[in-house]
Amino acid sequence: MKYYHSHVIIPEKCTGRMKCLRACPTEAIRLRHGTITYYDDLCVDCGACINVCPEHVFVPMIDEISDFEKFEFKLAIPSRTLYTQFGSAIHPSLVHQALKNIGFDAVVDSSRVCHELMFAISEHIKTNPKERPIISSFCPALIRLIQVNYPNLMELISTFDVPREITAKEAKHEYAEKLGISMSKIGAIYITSCPAMVVSIKQPAEKEKSWFDGAIAIKDIYNMILPELMMVNKGQKPKSTDDYFYYGRGWGEIGHVSQYLDAERHLTVVGIENIMNVLNDIETEKLRNIDYIEAFTCTQGCMGGIFCVENPYIARHTAIILEKNFGEPKSFNEQEVLKKYKEQYYFLGRHVLPRPTRALASDIGTSIKRMIQKERILVKLPKKDCGLCGAPSCETFAQDCARGEADLSDCIFFKLSTH
Amino acid sequence: MQEDRNHSIEITKIKEALQANVIAGNCKTGQYVSGIYASDLMSDVLAYGKSGSILVTGLNSVQAAISAYMAEFKGIVFIRSKIPANDIRKFAEEKGLVILTTDTDMYETCVKIASIEGEIQITKDISELPKRAENITTYTFSIDGQDFASAGMVSTQIKTILKSIGYDPLIIRRVAISTYEAEMNVVMHAKRAKVTLKASDQEIYIIIADEGKGIEDIELAMQEGYSTATEEQRAMGFGAGMGLPNIRKNSDKMNIESMVNEGTRIETMFYVK
Fold it and tell me: Is A284 within 8 Å of B199 when comparing Cβ atoms?
């Protein structure tokens, strides 16, 4: 299977600084004989390589507004983080106005769905004692990390769809009815804080097809809407009540889904290494009294996404003020949400499936032989993890050698010791 | 190749049956051995050898003698006319090991010893692994008692190894859970332990042998909810009395032996297919 990834590699730009080798949490990158090699089945789209490379070898693949000209009606659904990029004085609905000014026909906010969904999940936790802890499916890089490294934990990934998808589904239906046009003529565009979201739209792990038709990066749209925002008075309330909405901080912010959950029975974890530690503990059944796990591979949640412009700490501060000034208690009909929950409205059709990755060999017997070989090679290596062989660590290099993909003589220390 | 025998055989009888030469420990051939252990892999000898056995091996190195001594064997039979070097003789004389040499090969040697007494029962022990030795990989780890900070490290390492070999996720999960439970038991109740992982294409085998206070009543300890953990340990979230039952639940075979004030040895086996 070919995996869609959020970036393309431009090998000519690479100067061999090896920052990406070490940054990649799943050790998917090698630099063999000066050329970048990359195991795409191991890539979880966390964006670490894009972030660390000073030469911009990894280029995020993202749509542009012009890609959506083919749609009769263009619908923007911004990530909650977009509102936090412009300071605390800008009313979130002005951001919507600015988006309309640059060519979107409608802008839809996902606050209400965020609240509804959390309420439904808290009900689900109360009434379903099975399969604990439930792991949030919000962060696409997290889902892919579990697919690649923790196939055992697949069934723990939440079977609820995520707010952005439900918002897109509802908005598409609503506008198709309102305008009397077919849904295929409506383009739903996500304004995203990170490349992983793009992958979840182009090749969803959890379903056949996303409700979105594409995604635009916050940093690309930032420069376009900033002048529009400057033109309107800061703090001004929008004229049309139609566009007015209450700002909710949403799922992308650390710790924010927990407002409906029992604080003693949920866990929030950020950063890919910390997540891996927690997932290890789940695998050994060490975490027994936790119902729900909220996790972000970015250490600042979605505000730390690489497409964000504002410093994530300031963005978070802005979010708090925005909620204080423009937010209101979430108003939705609990009975209606419960009814929808019982009708399976919020659920995905299926469980996420594990991604088959390259084991040492296709059969266990050969695999064990290679494992023994790997250990034999490893004792000959200096264990300096210098990376000069092109692998991120001596351990990985030994594994590559056992698999026949690298040669022991690529190790400079081994070479020196044999001459 | 491993055989456990319940009966005792006099070393002199073995010598006669094999027409063997005594190289060392001539005055000790009147001893009885309780079992035979045939292997060239000394880590196997250390891992599975029962004390009081005799080792049948083709490994002509001082490691064989040291391993036999460490595993508390009574002696060694070197097969196919291998003449042990002086260092082996010296070590054997010092430690009181009997050394025999025979010109038969390993299989024949075992058959000959096995036929000394007609009614001897050969029991296969659960540690028997497939004969294709090249398809077994062995790792050893150690755990320190009371080291709560690193508790779980060994089971995590084992899990990582099994994952990179590419076993079915479900079996890895079972190994991880039962090893973690056993590891926690060591941390809570023992001084230290040695963990051995043997992975083959047929089975995954884990031995956790600890030095510690041992278990007085194994049957009682196997009951769910039974625990001897202290209040402090419980406060840290351990000692719910689910350890041993959970190990049994997650493994295909489990064997537990314990000596009070000496230690506990837990062997677990998981079938790959």
Answer: no
Q: CATH top-level class for A359-419?
A: mainly alpha
Give B134-271's CATH code, choosing from 3.30.565.10, 3.40.710.10, 3.30.420.10, 3.30.300.20.
3.30.565.10
CB within 8 Å of B11: residues ≥ 6 apart: B28, B29, B30, B31, B32, B33, B54, B74, B75, B98, B100
B165 and A283 within 8 Å at the Cβ level: the answer is: no
User: Do the beta carbons of residue A42 and residue A357 sit within 8 Å?
Assistant: yes
Decide if pLDDT at A239 tops 80: no
Which residues of A are less than 8 Å from B243 in CB distance?
A: none
Q: pLDDT tens for residues A67-126?
A: 899 999 999 999 999 999 998 888 888 898 899 989 999 999 888 888 889 889 998 998
Q: What is the pTM of this model?
A: 0.74
Chosen from A146, A289, A369, A371 to mutate, greatest number of chain B CBs within 10 A: A371
Distances (CA, A) of B25 to A406, B75, B99: 51, 9, 7
Would you identify the CATH topology of the domain B2-123? 3.40.1390
What interface predicted TM-score (ipTM) does this complex get? Answer: 0.75
The amino acid present at B67, given as its one-letter code, is S
Contact B207, B220 (CB under 8 A): no
Question: Which tokens sit at B50?
Answer: 């029962």
